[in-house]
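Moderator note: this is an archived Q&A kept for reference. The question asked for a predicted structure of one protein chain; the sequence and the answer are reproduced below.
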Amino acid sequence: MSALFISDLHLTEERPAANEQFIDFLEGRARRARALYILGDFFEYWIGDDDLEEPFNAVMAGLLRGLTRDGVALYLMHGNRDFLIGERFCAATGAELLADPTVHDIEGVKTLLAHGDKLCTDDADYQNWRSIARSAQWQREFLGKTRAERRRMILGLREKSKAVIQAKPADIMDVNEAAVAQALREHGVTRLVHGHTHRPGRHALTVDGRPAERWVLPDWYGPGGYLEAGRGTPKLVRF
């Protein structure tokens, strides 16, 4: 009855292999868990909760609802692709929306949970865009457009983002070590779990003389995987 953590699935009709992998995971390992944490970027993009009317999105929401009806607690955090997920989606799935970051007690260990993008402080351009896109004004104006207009706008931003990412040094898009240490210090914990960077693994560090650890979740562009945290040391599982 451990807790499972996933992120960066980037689910879309265009990636059927990832969709099948997620369904298998949901019907198998996740059903035996105490809780499932989705730490951002569950969808490739999300233009607003009215997009639940799209058949693909409705099916994915229904699968999550089946999980919660079976008694598995479901926690959801915004990512940089799906930060417009709101109350309607949570009501449809039975998920609890978490702030980013947040601290949860995971099998007796206070653990800081985050999507991870806020920790990439060396990427000033992204952080500037993030502050704009998370503002009430930008979201109000965006959600005021038609669904077709929003989808065209998001797809355009995705193409622009691909070009920008290719032009940036890889290290600038990873977390900043000082930002990680400060986050652990501020929340009084020694364990951090996040996604976003697509660099899965366990990183050992020392914060104010205390040993700490940072677990990075795998993305699902490749084989995918999850982190399992029960009694004892967490385990990173790759499919």
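Archived answer notes: The two ends are 20 Å apart (CA to CA).
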